[in-house]
Design goal:
Helix content is about 65%, strand content about 0%. The chain has about 140 residues and is mainly α. It has a domain at about 5-100. It is rod-shaped.
Length: about 140
């Protein structure tokens, strides 16, 4: 996950979910787009792009779901995706601990020193001891 500050991202997403829940409640009570609902909708639209950028880095599939609109109250899919995004961010550290980094686990420092010394001294490559040359 390429997010510099997961806690700040999670805080932003949770605030966004709060706006969505407020909007959903207002819409369910009145079944109309009141001035208060429109004000909340404006706040949602202002924050949606940043939340989508967070989602693109955390899970691109969720970023697509955040854009989906539905009939009636327009944010059914958006609130589902935002809640899933909050879950991804909240469990990022645990997931990293359980799943570990992607790639080989063998550290180069565990290799015998003469391999690295010879490589750097003679400019050899892994091509059977031949000096490395730029290709033309």
């Amino acid at each position: 996950m390429e997010i510099a500050n997961i806690e700040a991202g999670l805080e932003k997403v949770r605030g966004f979910i709060g706006l969505l829940e407020q909007s959903q409640h207002m819409y369910s009570v009145t079944r109309a787009q009141t001035p208060e609902w429109k004000q909340t909708d404006t706040q949602i639209q202002e924050q949606l792009r940043l939340v989508m950028r967070i989602a693109e880095r955390a899970d691109p599939e969720l970023a697509v779901m955040l854009k989906d609109h539905s009939y009636g109250w327009p944010y059914h899919q958006t609130i589902k995706a935002a809640r899933q995004l909050a879950g991804v961010l909240a469990t990022a550290e645990e997931a990293e601990r359980i799943l570990g980094p992607v790639g080989p686990k063998l550290a180069a420092t565990s290799r015998h020193p003469w391999i690295w010394t010879r490589q750097s001294t003679y400019g050899m490559t892994a091509t059977r001891g031949k000096p490395s040359r730029p290709r033309r």
